[in-house]
Amino acid sequence: MTVLAPAPPAAPASSPRWRGVRTGAWAVVLVVALAVSIVVSVTLGPAELSADDVWGTILAHLGLGESALSPLRDGIVWELRMPRVLAAAAVGAGLALCGAIMQAVLRNPLADPYLLGLSSGASFGAVTVIVLGFTVALPIAAFAGALAALVATLALAGAVGRITSSRTILAGIAVSAVLGALTSLVIFWSATGDSYREILSWLLGSLAGVTWPTAVIALVAIAVIGLPLLASAGALDAFAFGDRAAASLGIAVGRTRWVLLGATALLTGCLVAVSGSIGFIGLVVPHAVRLLVGARHRALLPLSLLTGAIFLVWADTLARTLFDPRELPVGVVTALIGAPLFAVLLLRSRRIS
């Protein structure tokens, strides 16, 4: 299978100190870009707002002054746009991080939560509880669906012999197709009226219904699951040289692989519970970041996290403003941007090789 190969490690002439400086510089640039993106995104929409309005409202709700806006405009900033933008940042960060980790653990540059069936499994779990009316259990159902899809993918890949990256991808495609069909069956038999519209938003990806409680789910998931995963960079570098090399470096290969895959399934389930199924972020963002800083995971993981957050903040901003007052599903926007970008990266990789 011809695939987009991971970028090679940095050139020998690049010293560790220089790589650290370059990574630090990119991290500062991306942190500033993320902060600016969040503020500017909140200002965009039918109600005209300035950056000063947004900062004033944020500080007022943090107890550092009073908001100069009317209650209506204050509510637009604090109750509508701010939780939605923060949730977009958290979901984009998490999906990009999951993609980078899965590509390293499975040693396959095509691995991501969407392609391996995790997003489909989480969507199936979410749709099922929506139809049954138990939306309070939606995050748990999404995680259970993502974990079940991961187990099914690895079991199917292992059923035909040794688990390889190509078999895992093919098994993921099969599991994703089955779960997609089951989700369609549930919708066909059960969904009516408003539930049909709500389910459709899950399948296409949408942040339109985000409130502070749902935004907190995504933010806590990133803080509790995503940030600790950054510490796995050393183990992921070892995986790049194969299981035997990783074991010789003191890595408990089997246990570490299952812990990392289980954590990505849990994180994916929490994020899909907030945003629905959004593709291409976990696939494209890590490849784009590798072109900037190479394949070392100490740089790749945090920069993918920041880049994914910026990407989804602007994708969601386009989704809600491009055809205002109509709103596009954000999954449509990420596909329209991500698919051509992935093709460009693929052609660039071919020229390099």
Automatic annotation (TrEMBL):
The keyword Cytoplasm does not apply. GO terms for biological process: siderophore-iron import into cell. Keywords: Cell membrane, Membrane, Transmembrane, Transmembrane helix, Transport. GO terms for cellular component: plasma membrane. It is found in: Cell membrane. It comes from the Bacteria. This is Iron complex transport system permease protein. Belongs to the binding-protein-dependent transport system permease family. FecCD subfamily. The chain crosses the membrane at residues 24-42, 85-106, 126-157, 169-190, 202-227, 259-285, 297-316, 328-347. It comes from Microbacterium invictum. It is a multi-pass membrane protein. GO terms for molecular function: transmembrane transporter activity. The keyword Cell inner membrane does not apply.
